[in-house]
Specification:
Number of strands: 13
Structural class: alpha/beta
Oligomer: single chain
Number of helices: 16
């Protein structure tokens, strides 16, 4: 390559693919991480692990599933029993699962309005799917970045057929109500003759905060959706659990929405492995996340940053937010350089805050098995190194 071409290559603005490839390489190459590396692991390694370990949760000599039987049906049976519901249905995505559940409840209540937080997943991350695909309307009990209160649900001016609660509310900082607050909110909805649906994509990790078994938490609702990849490290997929008639109707809508997939055994096997391996470990992740969050706050307090926030403090689950007063491109460059040069992955991706003032960015921190070995001193040292890199990013 000529000097001119080399200079042009160096001056070229990195494309999104360049950034993605650099980030993936840095994440894979890091030797110390706070979270598990489910999303950046090579396909070959993931498939080899599934083939090696899958036999511990299901007989691999059985034939693959065909349109939802076999291992998929076994996964549905185990999750329904775990959550204490009569029935459950596997869906390729949570978006589809909740479409089916909410339109099913609208038909039963005769009211197409869904009371939902404006930061909930269907409102922010699904391209308006509820009204466009299912003809449902949404109403908001509160605009505050927290869970709604019983008073707000009880006093909502417009009637609604379903109250949907995202537990935890991710975009507000993975926040949860207290157990008594949750019970009161559910009771308030029932006083208005509404049903209650939990968007429990991450409900698996809420047991520590509520101090209740998973089945007791899920049992407050009329139906629950949970994800298999967000907390449990599955390849993909979700489950809808609830009364048998609702789940039967949801299966019909799953077919209509294009979710009647011919074979899904890799996703189902990985979900069963997640139930076997990751679910029992989640309480330890939550406990250690509280120590990590405290150490992060200490590290930033001792640093040169003019302002920071760890939210919520202490975390309600094993995930939480960190806020800093810098543009995301500066923080992302500092995080990448730290991972590349020290093999320590402290933060993954920073984003501009959609709810904060201009110039403020946030990142989501997840503490999992890989982070259990981090001491408070390890976290503070990593923060000090990260802050130095902000100044030169």
């Amino acid at each position: 390559m000529s000097d001119t071409n080399e200079q042009a290559e160096e001056a070229r603005e990195p494309s999104p693919d360049d950034v993605r490839d650099r980030r993936r390489a840095a994440w894979r190459g890091a030797e110390r991480k706070l979270g598990n590396d489910f999303m950046s692991r090579p396909m070959g390694g993931a498939l080899a692990e599934l083939a090696e370990a899958g036999g511990s949760v299901y007989d691999l000599d059985e034939g693959p599933d065909i349109y939802g039987d076999g291992v998929v049906a076994e996964l549905e049976r185990r999750v329904a029993a775990l959550l204490g519901f009569p029935a459950a249905a596997f869906f390729p995505t949570g978006t589809m699962a909740q479409q089916a559940a909410l339109r099913g409840w609208a038909g039963r209540t005769g009211n197409d309005a869904v009371a939902i937080h404006p930061l909930a997943h269907p409102e922010v991350h699904e391209s308006g799917a509820l009204p466009v695909v299912s003809g449902l309307r949404t109403v908001h009990p509160t605009q505050e970045p927290r869970q709604p209160t019983a008073e707000e649900v009880r006093d909502l001016a417009e009637p609604f057929g379903t109250l949907m609660l995202e537990l935890p509310l991710r975009d507000a900082g993975f926040v949860l109500p207290t157990w008594d607050e949750l019970v009161a909110v559910v009771d308030a909805a029932r006083e208005r003759d509404a049903v209650v649906h939990f968007d429990g994509a991450r409900l698996w990790e809420c047991v520590t905060h509520f101090g209740r078994p998973l089945a007791e938490i899920a049992g407050l609702a009329d139906s629950v959706y949970l994800s298999f990849y967000k907390s449990l490290g599955g390849l993909s997929g979700a489950v809808l659990a609830g009364p048998a008639p609702l789940v039967a109707e949801a299966r019909v809508w799953r077919h209509r929405y294009g979710g009647q997939v011919f074979q899904q055994y890799p996703a189902a096997l990985s979900a069963l492995l997640g139930l076997e391996r990751e679910l029992p470990r989640l309480p330890s992740y939550v406990a250690h996340a509280r120590e990590v969050a405290a150490a992060l706050a200490e590290g930033f307090a001792e640093s040169a940053v003019p302002w920071f926030r760890v939210h919520p403090e202490p975390p309600h689950t094993h995930q939480f937010q960190v806020w800093l007063p810098y543009p995301p491109e500066v923080l992302n460059e500092a995080a990448l350089r730290q991972a590349e040069e020290t093999k320590v992955l402290l933060f993954r991706v920073w984003h501009a805050s959609g709810t904060g003032p201009p110039g403020v960015s946030l990142t989501e921190v997840t503490v999992a098995e890989a982070g259990l070995e981090w001491t408070a001193q390890d976290v503070r040292a990593a923060v000090a190194d990260f802050v130095k890199r902000i100044e030169t990013a």
